Automatic annotation (TrEMBL), chain A:
<feature type="transmembrane region" description="Helical">
    <location>
        <begin position="188"/>
        <end position="206"/>
    </location>
</feature>
<feature type="transmembrane region" description="Helical">
    <location>
        <begin position="158"/>
        <end position="176"/>
    </location>
</feature>
<feature type="transmembrane region" description="Helical">
    <location>
        <begin position="44"/>
        <end position="63"/>
    </location>
</feature>
<keyword id="KW-0769">Symport</keyword>
<feature type="transmembrane region" description="Helical">
    <location>
        <begin position="312"/>
        <end position="345"/>
    </location>
</feature>
<dbReference type="InterPro" id="IPR031155">
    <property type="entry name" value="DUR"/>
</dbReference>
<feature type="transmembrane region" description="Helical">
    <location>
        <begin position="365"/>
        <end position="385"/>
    </location>
</feature>
<keyword id="KW-0812">Transmembrane</keyword>
<dbReference type="InterPro" id="IPR001734">
    <property type="entry name" value="Na/solute_symporter"/>
</dbReference>
From TrEMBL, chain B:
<keyword id="KW-0812">Transmembrane</keyword>
<dbReference type="InterPro" id="IPR036116">
    <property type="entry name" value="FN3_sf"/>
</dbReference>
<feature type="transmembrane region" description="Helical">
    <location>
        <begin position="122"/>
        <end position="144"/>
    </location>
</feature>
<protein>
    <recommendedName>
        <fullName>Fibronectin type-III domain-containing protein</fullName>
    </recommendedName>
</protein>
<keyword id="KW-1133">Transmembrane helix</keyword>
<keyword id="KW-0732">Signal</keyword>
<feature type="signal peptide">
    <location>
        <begin position="1"/>
        <end position="27"/>
    </location>
</feature>
<keyword id="KW-0472">Membrane</keyword>
<dbReference type="InterPro" id="IPR013783">
    <property type="entry name" value="Ig-like_fold"/>
</dbReference>
Length: 478, 149
C-alpha cells in the first residue's frame, strides 16, 4: 500500500527522465570502457587515474543517496547535530588521504582491501574481514537500491518496486558494459550534476522561505530539533564520524581507487574530495528543516528531501531532485558493484576456488558477479524492511570495528593477527549490542571503541615484528 | 419495577440512523493506526494508518495530550497514509485517525494510540560523546606518529 498520495511529477515525465539518463550513462559506459580489454584495465583503469578525475570519482562516490537523502532524513529526525554530524563523514575521506599514499607505496600491485588483510594478518583475520566487508557491501547496495525506489515514489508516485528495479538495472547495465573506467568516467559527469543541482535547490529554498520562517516553524512544531543538547543527537555526532571512517578505511571501493590512482595522486585526490564533500550534507540537510515552515506532510523520514524540494519548487524542483539524486545513486552504485565484484572474484573465487584461473576467465567472472550482485540486491530491496538510515547504520557496528585493525596494520609493525581478529569480532558484537540496546546512533561508536581497546591491549601484550616487504606481493601470473 | 427494554421510538430512531448512514462506512469499517515505536528515545516516530480497501479516502489525524481527547490538535488532513513526528520533548501523546470516504461519510475513530517520548539521559549521551572523541583523536595520533614506530 502506498503511503503517499500527493506526488508532484507525472509518472510519465519521471519515466522519461529516468530513461534519458539511463541512456546517457549506458552510452558513456560504452564510450569509456570500449578499449579496456585487459583485466587490469577493466578492474583498475590501468592504474593511471589522474588528480582531476581521481578527486571527482572519490567525491561523487561518497556523495550517495545516503548524502542527498539521508542527510535530510537525519536533520529531520535529530535536528542540527544530525546535519552537522553527517557532514563529519568527510573526515573519513580526509584521514584516508595519508592511508591511500601509504597503501600505494606498500602494495604497488595490490587489487583489493582483502589482499592487505590476508598478507598483514593471515587467513583467519582475512576471512573475518571478508565477511564484514561483504555484509557491509550488501547493506550499502540495498540502501542504494531502496533509495532509488523511495525517490521515484516520493516524487512521482511510481510504485516503490518499479523505480527501484529500473534504477538498479540501469546501474548494473552500464557497470557491466564499461568496467572501472566507465565507473570513474561517469562519476566525473555525475559529480557536476550533483553539485549544480544541490546549489540551485539550496539557493531557491532560502530565497522562497528565508531563515526566519524556517527557525520559527521549527521552534513551534519541533523544538528539540534546534537544541544542541538532544541526547540522541549528541551520541550520533561521533558515531557518524567513526562510521564514515570505518566505511572508507575498510571498503574495497576506496582501496581500488587507491590502487588505480597514478603514484602521488591518491593523497591529494582524497584530501580535495573530503574538502569539497563536507558542505554537501549541510546543504542537503538544511532543506529538510524547511518542512515544518512549509506545512508539508512527510510520510517517511527518508522521503523528506525530495518532498520538500518538490513542494517548494514545484515541477522544476522535482525534476532537479530526480536528476541529481539519480546521479548520486548511480555514482555510488556503479562503484560499489565494481569494487564488491572484484573483492568476491579475487578474494573468494580466485584465492579460494580457482587459483589457476586465467585473466580472461577472471574478467568474465567479474561481469557475472556484477550481475549476480545486482539480482541479490534487488531481491533484498523488494520488502523495504526499514528506513535507509537504520539499514545503513546497522552495518556501522561492523565496519567501525575494522578502523583500528586497518590503521594500526598499516603503521605499526607490532600489531598482531590475534589482536586484529579479536578486535573485529568483539568490536562488531559490542557495536551491534549497543545498536539494539540504545539505538542506531551508537552502533559504530561502541564498535570502534571496543576494537581500539583490543588492538591497543594485544599490541602491547604480544607485539610482533612485521616485515613491510611482505605486503609487496608480486602481480599474479594469469 | 423499572422498564428493562428501550421504548419502541428509541429503537426506531436508532434503526433510522443506521439506515441513513453511508453504506461505504459500514463496508469499510474502522481505520487502523500503528506507530513505529511506542517508546521514542530520540523524539521521533512514524505513524501509519489506513482503511482496508478504500483508495482515495481522506484521513484526519488528531493528537492530544489527554487520553480522552478533550483537547486535540489536527496533525494532518489528506490522502497520505503516514507521517513522521520528530523534535518532540519528553511527554505522553495520544493519537486517533478518522476516514472520510468518497460520498462524504465519516468512519468511526480508530483505536487510540499512545506514544511516550523519553529521551536518553544526558549523562549517558555525554559519556558516549567523550568516548567517540577519544577514539577519533587516538586514530589521528596513530596516523600522524605511526610511521616512526
Amino acid at each position: 500500500m502506498s503511503i503517499q498520495e500527493t506526488a508532484i511529477l507525472e509518472p510519465g515525465l519521471a519515466w522519461f527522465l529516468i530513461a534519458l539518463f539511463t541512456a546517457l550513462y549506458l552510452g558513456m559506459g560504452w564510450y569509456f570502457g570500449r578499449r579496456d580489454k585487459e583485466l587490469d584495465q577493466f578492474v583498475l583503469a590501468g592504474r593511471k587515474v589522474g588528480l582531476a578525475v581521481g578527486t571527482a570519482t572519490a567525491m561523487a562516490t561518497w556523495v550517495t543517496s545516503n548524502t542527498t537523502m539521508m542527510a535530510p532524513q537525519l536533520a529531520y529526525q535529530i535536528g542540527l547535530w544530525g546535519m552537522i554530524g553527517y557532514a563529519l563523514g568527510s573526515v573519513g575521506l580526509l584521514l584516508f588521504a595519508p592511508l591511500a599514499k601509504r597503501i600505494r607505496q606498500l602494495m604497488p600491485y595490490g587489487y583489493t582491501s582483502g589482499d592487505f588483510v590476508r598478507l598483514r594478518y593471515g587467513p583467519v583475520a582475512w576471512r573475518i574481514f571478508l565477511a564484514i566487508s561483504l555484509f557491509y557491501s550488501f547493506g550499502w547496495l540495498v540502501s542504494l537500491g531502496m533509495a532509488g525506489g523511495v525517490l521515484t515514489h516520493a516524487l512521482s508516485g511510481i510504485p516503490y518496486w518499479q523505480g527501484m528495479t529500473v534504477i538498479l538495472a540501469a546501474c548494473v547495465a552500464y557497470t557491466l558494459i564499461g568496467g572501472f573506467r566507465a565507473v570513474i568516467g561517469t562519476d566525473f559527469i555525475q559529480s557536476i550534476l550533483i553539485l549544480v543541482g544541490l546549489v540551485v535547490i539550496a539557493w531557491l529554498v532560502i530565497g522562497r522561505i528565508g531563515f526566519d520562517d524556517i527557525h520559527l516553524g521549527l521552534q513551534l512544531e519541533r523544538p528539540e530539533l534546534l537544541t544542541l543538547l538532544m541526547p540522541a543527537a549528541i551520541m550520533f555526532l561521533f558515531n557518524n564520524l567513526l562510521f564514515g571512517m570505518g566505511e572508507i578505511f575498510h571498503s574495497n571501493v576506496w582501496w581500488t581507487r587507491a590502487y588505480s590512482f597514478r603514484e602521488g595522486v591518491g593523497m591529494w585526490a582524497y584530501l580535495l574530495a573530503g574538502i569539497f564533500w563536507a558542505p554537501i550534507p549541510i546543504v542537503a540537510g538544511f532543506i529538510a528543516l524547511a518542512a515544518p515552515a512549509l506545512g508539508a506532510n512527510i510520510p517517511a523520514a527518508d522521503m523528506v528531501g525530495p518532498i520538500v524540494a518538490s513542494e517548494l519548487l514545484g515541477l522544476a524542483g522535482a525534476v532537479i531532485v530526480l536528476v541529481m539524486v539519480f546521479a548520486a545513486l548511480a555514482s555510488s552504485l556503479d562503484s560499489l558493484l565494481a569494487a564488491t565484484a572484484m573483492l568476491v572474484v579475487r578474494d573468494i573465487y580466485y584465492r579460494h576456488l580457482r587459483p589457476q584461473a586465467t585473466a580472461a576467465h577472471l574478467r568474465t567472472a567479474t561481469k557475472v558477479t556484477i550481475l549476480l550482485l545486482g539480482i541479490i540486491a534487488w531481491m533484498l530491496c523488494l520488502p523495504r524492511i526499514t528506513t535507509l538510515a537504520e539499514l545503513l547504520h546497522f552495518t556501522g557496528a561492523f565496519v567501525a570495528s575494522t578502523i583500528w585493525p586497518i590503521a594500526a596494520g598499516l603503521y605499526w609493525r607490532q600489531t598482531n593477527r590475534i589482536g586484529a581478529s579479536l578486535a573485529m569480532v568483539l568490536g562488531s558484537l559490542a557495536g551491534i549490542s549497543a545498536y539494539f540496546l540504545i539505538g542506531f546512533y551508537v552502533g559504530a561508536l561502541v564498535g570502534a571503541a571496543v576494537s581500539m581497546v583490543i588492538v591497543l591491549l594485544t599490541t602491547w601484550l604480544w607485539p610482533q615484528s612485521f616485515d613491510w616487504k611482505t605486503l609487496n606481493e608480486p602481480p599474479p601470473r594469469h | 419495577m423499572p422498564h428493562r427494554h428501550a421504548p419502541h421510538a428509541l429503537w426506531a430512531f436508532a434503526l433510522s440512523i443506521i439506515l441513513l448512514m453511508p453504506a461505504s462506512v459500514f463496508a469499510q469499517g474502522v481505520p487502523t493506526l500503528d506507530v513505529s515505536t511506542q517508546m521514542a528515545r530520540a523524539g521521533y516516530y512514524q505513524l501509519r494508518w489506513g482503511l482496508e480497501g478504500a483508495d482515495g479516502t481522506l484521513y484526519r489525524l488528531e493528537e492530544s495530550r489527554y487520553d480522552d481527547f478533550r483537547q486535540v490538535r489536527v496533525l494532518y488532513e489528506g490522502a497520505d497514509r503516514a507521517t513522521v513526528i520528530s523534535g518532540r520533548s519528553d511527554g505522553i501523546f495520544h493519537y486517533r485517525v478518522r476516514a472520510t470516504v468518497a460520498d462524504g461519510g465519516h468512519s468511526p475513530w480508530s483505536e487510540p494510540l499512545m506514544v511516550t517520548v523519553a529521551h536518553h539521559s544526558l549523562g549517558q549521551a555525554l559519556t558516549l560523546f567523550l568516548t567517540g572523541a577519544v577514539v577519533f583523536l587516538a586514530t589521528i595520533a596513530l596516523i600522524v606518529t605511526g610511521r616512526k614506530v
